[in-house]
């Protein structure tokens, strides 16, 4: 939660810390040792300071050296060294507020979300720094902000009250107002707004804040007075007139509200605030025909602001759905989206509506295309269209979407992956290589690791097929490192290593992982059986080749699978069955080299 969205602190924490450190350096260098401070700016604060111990000249010099070095190391981001130096400084002088404060900040910065020990230590030190130097606004504000971060709003409120009592700045009072609002103390928030007005003068933002506070505490009289004053002060700002109408409506005076809305719409027919309020009036007073008529007028009027159109359609969806007609809004959406759109907001609402109706995914295509007409670089719409094209196996559309996607969103690697995959399916291998290599050059820490791994693995398959085995193995390794659960990559990597009898233990481990993950996948079982064969563990290999054949439909058994089975059975001593498998392999093989190899095996009756 951000409490300072309206009244932002002018200086960042880093600047405050830097300024604090520099001030301390100047003070310490100027006094040399333990010279007393000049007269305090705040006598009351001084009277409440915790008594400090007195250091000797040598102790003060040693403390100064340690503390200044701690500051220097911190500025160089050497936090461990800074921590050790601060520890030494605090051993010499545990009452040095500057060292206590810096140690608190270090501990809080090091504390993770669940390290309650460090959090408690940092909190305790921060409170002690405030006790040691109650006049130091920065310490107190830092503690207050830490309490806000931990949702201790009441504790933070007390500290900001103390800060405001000494120096009621716009930033301090703005934060205090938000804290009162957060804790439901609307009276306190209004009083703080009054204090702000004393500083900056009355303005629209503060008047609206006050109006909302009165509404929250159900103080209608003051709410009316505030909004009427705004109407009088800013007669050309018709939104305040609409707010007045809304107040009438909420308090049971619908006809007075309607008069206000009509008055505004007479002056400004396309006023979005009045349009939405008038729709709510028609709907809640059950004037259905007027409600539907005005929804159409708002949504189909080219002059209507997009926000108003979206709000009108959202209300219309809710109203018609409650009445049992969940499809009623669809024709109006189509009619509205046939018109030119200022932005994507109405089309996006239509997409959510269609998705909620569980309509076919393909029905989203015209909506996504409308979004891209308005905002061609909107990646999510193009990705949705890409998914639809992939489901429809529309390769031409996939290539078009990916090509445009790369132009508009060059860091999105999904577009490179699917363009490359589609080009491969069309036997355009060189074009696919170019796209895929461009894609892997875009991989960074923000990239989806699974997609990046799949792309590297696809490239590795191509490189291996082209005979560039070392390049392929390098790509397989990168893919496996990015996604250790990329089973297809692990399978292919392991299989090709086994064909060259390289790193067979590594290959076996990778292949075993695929089998454990998908114990009925015939491709993975075949690879594992073959690697066991290469490792001369023939009996185990036979178990897995049998499993492979069991889980492969007879019409899908490849010549390579029969060949593997024959070799394995031969090594297990079953030559008759080995010959039968080789003959089956010869019957289904269409590769000349493989057929010649099989004929030799059959003639020689051995591998």
From TrEMBL:
Q: Where are the TPR repeats?
A: 238-271, 453-486, 559-592
SMART domains per UniProt = TPR
Protein name per UniProt? Tetratricopeptide repeat-like domain-containing protein
Q: Which residues form the signal peptide?
A: 1-39
Reading the lineage from the top rank, the first entry is Bacteria
Q: Which SUPFAM superfamilies match?
A: TPR-like
Keyword Transmembrane assigned: no
UniProt key word Ligase: no
This protein's species is: Alloprevotella rava F0323
What the entry lists under Pfam families is as follows: TPR_8
């Amino acid at each position: 939660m951000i409490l300072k969205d309206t009244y932002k602190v002018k200086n960042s924490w880093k600047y405050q810390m830097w300024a604090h450190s520099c001030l301390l350096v100047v003070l310490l260098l100027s006094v040399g040792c333990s010279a007393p401070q000049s007269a305090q700016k705040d006598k009351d604060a001084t009277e409440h300071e915790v008594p400090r111990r007195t250091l000797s000249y040598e102790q003060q010099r040693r403390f100064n050296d340690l503390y200044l070095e701690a500051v220097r190391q911190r500025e160089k981001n050497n936090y461990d060294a800074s921590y050790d130096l601060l520890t030494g400084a605090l051993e010499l002088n545990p009452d040095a507020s500057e060292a206590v404060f810096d140690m608190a900040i270090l501990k809080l910065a090091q504390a993770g979300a669940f390290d309650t020990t460090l959090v408690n230590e940092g909190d305790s030190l921060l409170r002690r720094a405030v006790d040691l130097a109650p006049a130091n606004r920065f310490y107190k504000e830092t503690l207050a902000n830490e309490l806000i971060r931990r949702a201790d709003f009441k504790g933070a409120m007390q500290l900001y009250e103390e800060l405001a009592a000494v120096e009621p700045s716009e930033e301090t009072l703005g934060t205090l107002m938000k804290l009162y609002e957060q804790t439901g103390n609307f009276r306190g928030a209004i009083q703080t707004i009054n204090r702000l007005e004393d500083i900056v003068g009355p303005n629209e933002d503060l008047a609206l804040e006050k109006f909302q506070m009165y509404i929250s505490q159900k103080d209608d009289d003051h709410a009316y007075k505030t909004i009427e004053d705004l109407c009088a002060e800013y007669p050309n700002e018709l939104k305040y007139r609409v707010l007045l109408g809304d107040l009438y409506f909420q308090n049971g005076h619908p006809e007075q509200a309607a008069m206000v809305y009509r008055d505004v719409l007479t002056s400004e027919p396309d006023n979005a605030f009045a349009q939405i309020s008038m729709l709510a009036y028609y709907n809640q007073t059950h004037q259905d025909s007027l409600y539907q008529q005005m929804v159409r007028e708002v949504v189909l009027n080219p002059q209507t602001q997009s926000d108003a159109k979206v709000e009108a359609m959202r209300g219309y969806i809710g109203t018609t759905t409650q009445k049992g007609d969940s499809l009623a809004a669809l024709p109006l959406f189509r009619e509205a989206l046939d018109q030119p759109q200022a932005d994507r907001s109405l089309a996006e609402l239509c997409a959510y509506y269609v998705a909620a109706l569980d309509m076919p995914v393909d029905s989203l295509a015209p909506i996504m295309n409308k979004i891209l007409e308005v905002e061609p670089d909107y990646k999510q719409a193009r990705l949705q269209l890409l998914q639809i094209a992939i489901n429809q196996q529309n390769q031409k559309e996939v290539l078009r979407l990916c090509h445009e996607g790369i132009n508009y969103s060059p860091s999105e690697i999904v577009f490179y992956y699917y363009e490359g995959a589609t080009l491969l399916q069309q036997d355009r291998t060189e074009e696919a290589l170019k796209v895929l290599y461009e894609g892997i050059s875009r991989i960074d820490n923000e990239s989806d690791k699974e997609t990046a791994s799949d792309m590297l693995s696809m490239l590795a398959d191509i490189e291996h097929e082209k005979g560039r085995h070392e390049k392929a193995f390098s790509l397989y390794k990168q893919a496996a490192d990015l996604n250790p659960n990329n089973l297809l990559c692990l399978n292919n990597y392991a299989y090709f290593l086994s064909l060259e009898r390289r790193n067979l233990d590594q290959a076996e481990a990778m292949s075993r992982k695929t089998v454990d993950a998908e114990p009925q996948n015939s491709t993975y079982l075949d690879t594992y059986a073959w690697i066991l064969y290469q490792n001369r563990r023939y009996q185990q290999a036979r178990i897995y080749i049998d499993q492979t054949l069991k889980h492969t439909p007879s019409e899908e058994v490849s010549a390579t699978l029969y060949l593997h089975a024959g070799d394995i059975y031969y090594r297990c001593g079953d030559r008759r069955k080995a010959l039968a498998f080789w003959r089956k392999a010869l019957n289904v093989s269409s590769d000349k080299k493989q057929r010649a190899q099989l004929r030799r095996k059959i003639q020689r009756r051995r591998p």
